Amino acid sequence: MNVSRFLLAGLALGAAEVLSAKIVTKPVAYEHAGVKLEGYLAYDDTKVSAAMPAPGVLVIPEWWGLTDYPKGRAEQLAKLGYVAFAADMYGAGVTTTDPKKAGELAGQFYGKPLMADRARAGLDQLLATGLVDPARVAAIGYCFGGATAQVLAYSGAPLAGIVSFHGALVPASAEAAAKNHAKFLLCHGAVDPFVKPEEVTAFMKSMEDGKFDYQFISYAGAVHAFTNPGADAIAKATGLPIGYNAAADKRSWAHMKGFFAEIFKAKR
Predict the structure, then answer these.
(1) 190 with 224: CB under 8 angstroms?
(2) Blockwise average pLDDT, block size 10, the chain, 268 residues
(3) Could you give the domains of the chain?
């Protein structure tokens, strides 16, 4: 079975320069710590301009890298009127369909300053577009990207909020709590085998101890990667205990939209 066929499916609309009369997309080359990166910018040019800046959303991918799935999410955000930038964490063109390789790629970031620093490089690209209101910026992430969004907020990045979809949970230290400016929305699969109940307990305690403004929503029957329409095929091909859950996908996206309306004060 061709795993990449399914991994890149789902929300993928391709890398065309213009998706429609309204949504503009483009690759953005940048560099961090000597690594050449290529992100993906999406926005609606009928709603957004330098004279009419919009809220910006950084999209941080799953551990597979910057595939068409996070690009598709950026396009969805653009259709909502946001300026979205899907960040590259690994290097231009570096993606994988092999869980072992994905683990190696993601593993170079966990527990290291590089995780927040590389994500911040993507955030800086979003802010540099000149299309974004810097007071209304958020980050969202999937799986590995969800954990990265948390760590980015802990670093003191100028974020109004972060949304983690089926992400690993990273407890906040006292130092992280002191630096954080963001509200948190955690969208969690209730039966995600990658996140143990004791990890949820430890994370929630750190949120309470740090006096975070957070929401933790657990979706019944949802496992890891529940937002990715290609997850079932990936599970079949690789044996990973992941799966798509249409109800949880729809509900978590709706929860994200409500969260954005709150943190961006619905000024758009």
Answers:
(1) no
(2) 47 45 92 99 96 98 98 98 99 98 98 98 98 98 99 99 99 98 99 98 99 99 98 97 99 99 76
(3) 3-263 (3.40.50.1820)
